[in-house]
Amino acid sequence: MKKIVNRFKIIFQHDVFLGLIEKLEVFVSKILSIAMVVVIAVAILDLGAHLVKELFTTDYGQFKTVIFNIFGLFLNILIALEILENITAYLRKQVLQVELVIVTSLIAISRKIIILDLNKVDGVDIIGLGIGVLALSISYWIIRASNTKI
Fold this sequence. Notes:
Elements: H1 2-11, H2 14-57, H3 63-93, H4 98-114, H5 123-149
Helix pairs in contact: 2-3, 3-4, 4-5
Transmembrane segments: 27-45, 65-84, 96-114, 126-143
Keywords: Cell membrane, Membrane, Transmembrane, Transmembrane helix
Protein name: Phosphate-starvation-inducible E
């Protein structure tokens, strides 16, 4: 019993415990990166199938209604790639890079704006998206400015 207690004391020492937590974080990040690669591959296959289907089945003149859906699928893949970049940057430097997170958020809001159906949203929704873009843009500018001074 004394050996077990001593073992726990060693494990819960500050440096040892933080080392174990860091190893767990790296393991989880690797699992997430593998899962994100699978998600990206499936999304690319879905985009390809959707693109082929829409190109050959959509009547002439109706493609403009489908193009926003296709743009949304493209941007979903771009967002997934940015998330994968966030994970791999974390694995490289063991630090969450705020600049990458903000850029990913800007891409996600831009995706929403690009595929937005103005007939189905209220003015408040558009104002909210505008405020979100403004806040993220200011945040990006501040982070970018602080990184260039270093």
